[in-house]
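User: What would this chain look like folded?
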Amino acid sequence: MAIDLTPVTNAISAKLLALDSSVSFADMRHYLAATSIIGATQYYDSAGLLPAADSDYKGQIALTMPASSADSGNGLWICDATSWTKFQDLDSA
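Assistant: Here's the prediction, encoded as structure tokens.
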């Protein structure tokens, strides 16, 4: 019997979209780990390498992480089928 992961994916996406500076780093790691478990997270070296936003990527979460963590561009992105939106900046202050 197949299990519909849509409610789980939607709940995780909602939590990720609500992230802000008041959320602890540990909680951010938990949410990101949850997206990896359900296969919703992809990793890219920069935002310029994100795939074209379309219905195939709707609801997908992407992590941009340059080769050096000291570089800018670290962040979490979500696709709404028409564009990628950065919803969490992960650059060091």
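The chain is about 25% helix and 20% strand. If you want, I can go into more detail on any region.
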